[in-house]
């Protein structure tokens, strides 16, 4: 296929259009992140309109998560093989078409098919976007700014989705939560086609590792589905257990295969470098905590406090503001001066303190007195940690591995989100049931029973939030122990001469 005339960029040349390119990459990333939460708010309306059963409603979310999470590594490898710009534009066009199909859905099957297609094209788009940044921004201060913007969008976009989803559902129609993606995608695709110039040496033309594609996709799908199934059917359910066992076997076989094949889908050198491994692990854990929180706060504000969808969306604004400030002001300004772990470890700890405040939730808790400051701390902490994490995830990789290294970031986020929703929701449900059992005898009037229902929900949320606090503390510890590279030296992507040996990264002891 022919490339547009501005596709290639000679090595070591600063791309004059790189900041324009960042704007279009940011639009695309915002669209993908928005989609993870915007549909949640529209789901009750869509379920009623399309006659989706209570048992099948989770598939509107799960179909997207399975396709997206399962195909991310494949999408990252395709972008290395096919070219990031071409993969990026193809992903955008496909995502727009799938969104149009979802918005026009006339029945359950059409809706689920559209969501799965969104996941497929999202898996092409997301790693291509991050890897384009990795190969276009190579100067330390510029890289810090670019990843600051990207990190703020990656962290705060989900909360923006709650606001936009509330507006569209309340004032227009649930279908607009799909149609809204189309203008995003068209603008980003047109801009990317004419503006983005990809470094010429960044391709990996090795043959595709088909066994690796099959094993990784099936392994990740089994893992995501296992956690999704655990949420609805319990951890001891036969299918849940089978999915987890299958996932372990398939992913173990995948790692063995990658160690032996000549051109692996996921070169183990991407994982075994301690800084990148530390980023993937700590970021995945942090996302577990964040996704659980989005879920609980949305239910708490709407069901317990009686907020409308729009008001609920706006209630998340302090977290978005905190993330933007943490990412673009704290992370960006300090990344070229201090080691990444000195931003990530304290960032995750500050988020844990914000989460700790939310363990004090009661039925009559003041939004301004507790929830707002907790969200600000969470946002500041996450934004500060996300920014160096996004940058470090592709730090030191050869250009030919940039796509698959980027895919690993998205995979850790996607799998973390699935685990967070299932794990924390299950903990909350158990605590809620236990509270009702212990206090049911004393609730003898309708008013007392209504209060008990609200109190039991809050009890469940706070029990799960305690777990989220612990998970964030572990994420902080992992970042402090594993990540040992110095401040961004301006050499984030190795020059790459086709050699297969371990990538050398400047490491500064602290």
Please explain how this structure is put together.
The protein is mainly alpha-helical and 510 residues long. The protein is 76% helix and 1% strand. Strands 1-2 form a two-stranded parallel sheet. Helix 2 runs antiparallel to helix 3, helix 5 runs antiparallel to helix 12 and helix 11 packs antiparallel against helix 15. The termini are far apart. The N terminus and C terminus are likely disordered. Its main location: membrane. It is a multi-pass membrane protein. This is MFS transporter. It is found in: Cell membrane.
Topology summary:
Layout: E1 8-9, H1 18-50, H2 58-82, H3 84-103, H4 108-136, H5 140-171, H6 176-179, H7 181-195, E2 198-199, H8 210-233, H9 238-260, H10 268-272, H11 274-304, H12 309-315, H13 317-335, H14 341-358, H15 367-392, H16 402-439, H17 446-482
Parallel strand pairs: 1-2
Helix pairs in contact: 1-4, 1-5, 1-7, 2-3, 2-4, 2-8, 2-16, 3-4, 3-7, 4-16, 5-12, 5-13, 5-15, 8-9, 8-16, 11-15, 11-16, 11-17, 13-15, 14-15, 14-17, 16-17
Protein name: MFS transporter
InterPro entries: EmrB-like, MFS, MFS_dom, MFS_trans_sf, Sugar_transporter_CS
Keywords: Antibiotic resistance, Cell membrane, Membrane, Transmembrane, Transmembrane helix, Transport
List keywords for this structure.
MFS transporter, disordered N terminus, membrane, globular, transport, 510 residues, single chain, two-stranded parallel ribbon, MFS_trans_sf, mainly alpha, cell membrane, 17 helices, disordered C terminus
What's the Cα radius of gyration? 22 Å
Shape: globular
The total strand number stands at: 2
Q: Structural class, please?
A: mainly alpha
| Largest sheet strand order | 1-2
Largest sheet: 2 strands, parallel
SSE ordering: EHHHHHHHEHHHHHHHHHH
Oligomer status? single chain
Helix-residue proportion: over 70%
Indicate the proportion of strand residues: under 5%
- Low-confidence sequence ranges: 1-12, 489-510
From the N-terminal CA to the C-terminal CA, the straight-line distance is: 49 Å
Count of helical segments?
Answer: 17
The average pLDDT score comes to 80
